[in-house]
Design a protein that fits this description.
By secondary structure, this protein is mostly helical. The protein is built from four helices and three strands, in the order αααββαβ. The longest helix is centred in the N-terminal third of the chain and has 82 residues.
Amino acid sequence: MTVQQELASLEELQILDLQNFTIRKELEAIPATIEEKRQNVEFVRTLLQKERARLDEAEAWRANSEREIQMQGDMLNNSRTKLQGARNEKENKAAQREIDTLRKNIGDREKEALEMLEAIEQYRIAIDEHTKEFAQLEETLRAEESSGNERIAELNALIAESAQKRAELASRVPEPILRRYDRVQKKLGRGLVEVIDGFCSGCNIGILPQLFNELIRGEKIHACPSCTRILIYRPRPENSEGSKD
């Protein structure tokens, strides 16, 4: 096999490796995307649990407050009865103080109960909204999991399919050259680059004239002295200028 054929196999190998790199990046991103949506679902689930707990507490407080208002209302009626049956000024004043205190307590409790009723309504509105959001997020998560698993299977099939082709291409390249290519490809993303206008297109460093001439002859595979990538040279067609009369 000639040097040019080996370089051609390396080029095909690199195209395949770059495609596989893209496939693997997509493969890695799918679980992350699914996990992000799962975390969104769990966040809203936790939020709903807290809101429902607050609603339960608020409704329990309101029920207890209504019982207290009822109890103090009964006490107010008793104090009014005492006032009506007062036998002297001392009993009259004592009963009146009880009435005033109870009226204030009942008024305060009724105000608090009204405020809590408004808060309960807001809790219910928020719970309704987040319940709908939760259902939508769950649906989105299920769809993402389904499509994600299908795509993972497709990508794994592509990787498996390319493995045989890669092995075939790699067998056409001498082992020392293949090891160099694999090492540089893993480190720098590309193990093979073109020389353009006397410069390595991988690191943009100029190639010495002697090395450049050897690349033109194509008798041996060379690497860039700077970045260690394997070099390939393609002659550029010269632009011809039309003659003028």
